[in-house]
Amino acid sequence: MKTKPIIIGVITGIVILGLAFFVKAKYFDKPPVAKYDQFMQDFNRHVVNKNTDSLATYFDLVWQLDMVWQPEMLNHFLKVLTNQSSVNMGNAAVLKLTLNIKGCTYTYLENGDAKIKVPVKLMDRTLPAQWTAITFTVHKKANKYVITNVDNLRFIEDYLAYENKVNTKSLTDKDIYSPITLQAFKSAEKLKTKYDSVLWFSHINKQTYFYVVKGKWDYYDVDSAKTYKMGLVNPQLQEIIPAEYDLIYNINGSINGLVEVEKDRKRGFYDLNGKIVVPVEYDQIFPLVNSEHLGALRKGNSYYWLEKNYSVSEETTVNIKELMAQLPRVNWTNLSHLSKTDVMEMNSRDNHSSVLISPSYLTDLNLVSAIKYLKNPLRRNVEFFDASSAYKVTEAEDLARADTGRFQALVYSIRDYFIGGRSEFYDVKNVVLVDKKENRTFSSDILADYSNSDGGEAPAKCDGYSFKALNDTLFELRAGATVDLSLPDEHFVKEMLVYQYLYLHNNKLVQKPTNRLFAFTKFVKMDESYIRGCYLYNGKTVSELPPVVLRYMKNEIYADYNYIFKDKQWKSVFEGSILDYKAENANVDDRLTDIDRYNLNWINQRLNGQAATKLAAR
């Protein structure tokens, strides 16, 4: 999605810590297991003694992947581990957990790090114990081991499910579940003789439909379709969609009266009588409003109309720009129009969220995740995991209004409101690139928060976007962003215009990887436009970068190659920056690219034309 730190994935304070490295593990050059055993034993000793301050020293608080490690989030996570807090912030722990250090398993990564899976036992004196696990990524740094990442998403869900058991053990079923849910539980038991799992109940007009699975389902990995096949059963417990699909979407989710299905990345429609209305052979489906057609269907580079009588037209000519304007207006205050008579909920007595299987056009445009968990109005007196109370997408802002250009860029603003112990909301921006020549759309997230602040705050002073196609495959997007740029002598920048570079690869819009805050120094040759704009510098809004920030920009190029700075101030600055900086190389001249050299020379010339500063550049 992104290669720079971003806050948009906030689910709870501690779930932010729970994104693991996506690195293929290999067993080679194994460090001694005994050292890791001792590391985890020492770690667990502090857990048992509730020494959260000591535990915090085991973590390397650096920028990792797309997320920010925030001290307050780490502190909350440690309070959970030491039984001083529930995973829901502000709630006391009602259960007890212990780490089984002797049961740890180790996987060694290509970069020499280790992933340590630690079994965790959840306990309450009135309930059977339950096992879950947390996986730590451990890195050797300066002759000591540190934890650089945590995979605890399943732990959080298991914890909340067990906590719900503890909290509701004195309640009756009627205190928790609606009558239609209780009846669905009974019907689902009957279906287990034919299917391996019954995942969800969809209540439509007071009638319940059942999403069933043959095989092993993993809802953390929607792409695990090779291990399962999904089908749909009607209220009379008759199979109306055979269990042979990778995903079955919400009933009425894309087009009223129809059910979108997907198999091998192809989409189509069934009706509720079990008839295939649209063959499952299309790459994209666009429902339309204010149109004489129900929708548009794309197969490769060809388009077809889905007519209102459910017939499919012959191949037709479609203007993708006009098509985008006819998509349903996405501005929901309640996803999937939830009500007590129309809701899709999980078949679980412990995980109480409702479910949205997002219409494929929304996931294709990157506006909603494939599976979204929401507050369930049919459950009472329970906590929800990873649930939203509201989700809003604004109208698109057009960044390329000229009709003569090949590309049009549309920016959507998305706000997700969380419930329970989660942050109140988080914001995310998304860009959709409309290729008018090829009649295609591509999308990518926009990084708008490089700061350590919680909640994905949008910039207040330096907002706004601009878009430029550098060529037919490389694009420059400038966006306002919040930052935490600390500079020598207590100078700082809190907001600025940040550049991101996107390119088309395998029919996807992908961000070029860099950890530089001033990304343009890596990808383009600078001119005056790159230092002008909007910057919240030392609490004041300025339109041009001051010399100390230019020096940061220059030194950031060197820091990207782990240059050993002679000035300790700059070494300190970059050790706390988004760069995974390590002072390793006394000379990096042979690593500089032609663009690096051009920009270093340009910055030096610009600095020489400004007032001197007492700060040394290198």
TrEMBL record:
- UniProt-listed Pfam families: WG_beta_rep, YARHG
Highest taxon of source: Bacteria
Supply the source organism for this entry. Answer: Mucilaginibacter galii
KW Ribosomal protein (keyword) present: no
Q: What is this protein called?
A: YARHG domain-containing protein
Q: Which residues form the YARHG domain?
A: 529-608
Entry keywords, A to Z: Membrane, Transmembrane, Transmembrane helix
Q: Which residues cross the membrane?
A: 6-23
